Please model this.
Amino acid sequence: GQVLSMFEAYMGEEQFRSGLQLYLRRHANGNADTADFFGALSDAVHDRQLAQAMQGFVDKPGIPVIRFERTGAGYRLSQKRYARLGDTVSAQQWLVPVCYRTSATRHCVMLGDAPQTIQTAGNAALMPNAGGSGYYRFSLSPTDWRRLIDTSAAMPPAEALMTIDSLWADFNAGN
Model:
């Protein structure tokens, strides 16, 4: 459910609904599999990469951690598979729809194997999981953690839960 919620937030509610309707029309009174479902959602937004991203969350174990490192005018995003301090896990990469916001401005990017740089305006706190719908954890510098925690009283509940989960996971990973 959380993975579907993440992709709906990335695509937008209307386009996600269009993808569901396309899937139901294509496979009415017939059989289908996950590839058919992911393909219909991808076709609805004309983005074949979306099916690959969705399949990755079904096929690959673990959960990604998105690292947000401050740069001059924004952040450098990179990912790795989450592991607690002392655990050994195989390296893993996903195509991750990352939705973030500063103040009320929300943006989404598809993060793959290569690090990606995003631009942010001003010095407002960064919420690395806008809406709390992303199926990923995030990691920040101590300064950015403090800035985000200072805004916690005004966070929507889903964002507050994702912040607590990511902060706890970052601690358990030894960061």
Notes: The radius of gyration is 17 Å. DSSP finds six helices and seven strands in the chain. Helices lie at 2-11, 13-26, 34-45, 48-59, 142-149, 157-172.
